[in-house]
């Protein structure tokens, strides 16, 4: 099996965000970076598949130098090699361009399976995976919460709304986008973290793979207007609890 | 401006998201047509042309089949914009169509300002305006971001469509999640645990507060995915939709998929260490505190009442 998993490095969502000088994206200073949550499930599923069938597993990430830290986690989880597509301006690229770069890399490698997350936590477009598959002309299934590979066929469950799932079969080569809860992503062990340091981590300048122009542009980034306007309580826990109880007595019937 | 609205049908039923699509068309004031793979027995109350493929011939959703039907319809309608809801149907089909049409796609649109769609960034902490550079733009709409103010009464003018296209994947059937046990929809007080509880043992803190308030405890998705709580306690788009008298969100950030399940609650209290957590948008009271300290104190005081 020749497997590819695509991961993105995203900021911790609990960060205090600031807007960059151009007003077009969030400022990247002072942020803690981590692997996109959905991609952790993608990496885990790819590693499990590789453990079952043998073969070779590549992890790919587009971004600046710092994304190598996140790639090392994927290598420590069990990926065999890393391909870092070096791009300091990746945050300006639309999903179509990101997908085009990945498809350009993948088109000559005959991957049997490609795993992506269903969406990135910062951009949330949910497009990159499907577009890669369309560009490569292979079937794709989105939002999977169960994955089985057998006899060159994948059988997956696609999550729909309200607890409903659709069971889908597709021949390989194929691409799947992974949803939360697909599996239990492993924590890299210390020996595996050490081993990962010796694994191949190749860098390719993005210009070598980019041959499309963007379909869209983020013209401005801003904070949403606060419309909730609820009461904010801070301070010593006992006092706050008393205040909250008074509010509940006044505004609701639950303490009556 | 011409808009094609893509309605959704599943297991013999037109999906309610069609109202979001019609509200959107009303808001941007466009000349709209609608597309549906469905049935004449359950038609949208849409005043305008409806391009209708019969689900009996097409089967349940298959991406390539629906993509071809849409491409044929688009060739006739020549829309400037194609609009889906940001649902499992929309986010699966829209990028396939966008690729075929070489069109820009903006996902999870929450607003349109001066004709430019606005989409959330970073769990709704930020917003961005996205300008499309292609002749056709494709949008998927966040559920509930555009809602009809009144029930529509339109009658569509049907034009039947069909295709011989087949799919690359095979649909083998549906599977319904097992329900049973606690029924959150009947609880008048729900105290929910989010990832902020940190470890499974802390469910007990949340359950105690729920008990003191004579309610049930619920959970956000990561807590259920980690098997710290059963699936029937999950609140949100892929769990339960609840509307209790009081909803207490403990260590829950307030992602849209969670909000969708609880925003109709009468009174909402959030307990969170992050003052900027998006749950603040729907909370009547936001307590900025560590739940591990605050919740036990609150519980004791309530028990002592
Ligand atoms: C298609 C789809 C469907 C989904 N369906 C659902 C669904 O049905 N239900 C659902 O809930 N989610 C759903 N999700 C997931 C959703 O997007 C979020 O990932 C999820 O709701 C986040 O859960 P959380 O708020 O518990 O965790 P996080 O987003 O990680 O938030 C944890 C919060 O806890 C706070 N915190 C941390 N420590 C403490 C402490 N000691 N005291 C107080 N606060 C603390 C943090 O500040 C943060 O705000 C879905 C996602 C997708 C893509
Ligand atoms: N910069 C990137 N590098 C590698 N993979 C990416 C990148 N951006 C997005 N992806 C992949 O595409 C998925 C969907 O992202 P998006 O379309 O931005 O929501 C992510 O979960 C990743 O698997």
Describe it.
The complex is a heterodimer of chains A (256) and B (305). Chain A has a 9-stranded mixed β-sheet with strand order 9-8-7-10-6-1-4-5-11, with helices on both faces. In chain A, strands 2-3 form a two-stranded antiparallel ribbon. Helices cover 28% and strands 30% of the residues of chain A. Chain A is of the alpha/beta class. With 305 residues, chain B is α/β, with parallel strands linked by helices. Chain B has 2 domains: 2-160, 3-Layer(aba) Sandwich (Rossmann fold), CATH 3.40.50.620; 184-303, TPP-binding domain (Rossmann fold, 3-Layer(aba) Sandwich), CATH 3.40.50.1220. Chain B is 26% helix and 30% strand. Chain B has helices at residues 18-28, 55-58, 63-77, 88-101, 203-212, 221-225, 256-262, 291-303; strands at 2-6, 9-10, 13-14, 31-38, 48-54, 81-85, 104-109, 111-113, 116-121, 126-132, 137-141, 156-161, 170-176, 189-193, 216-219, 246-250, 267-272, 285-288. In chain B, the strands form 4 sheets. A 7-stranded parallel β-sheet of chain B has the order 7-11-6-1-4-5-12, sandwiched between helices. A 5-stranded parallel β-sheet of chain B has the order 15-14-16-17-18. In chain B, α3 crosses α4 (88-101) and α5 (203-212) runs parallel beside α8. The model of chain B has no long low-confidence stretch (mean pLDDT 95). The chains are: A alpha/beta (256), B alpha/beta (305). Chains A and B meet through α4, β7, β8, β9 and β12 of A and α4, β7, β9, β10 and β13 of B. The complex binds flavin-adenine dinucleotide (FAD) and adenosine monophosphate. Adenosine monophosphate binds next to α1, β4, α3, β6 and α4 of chain A.
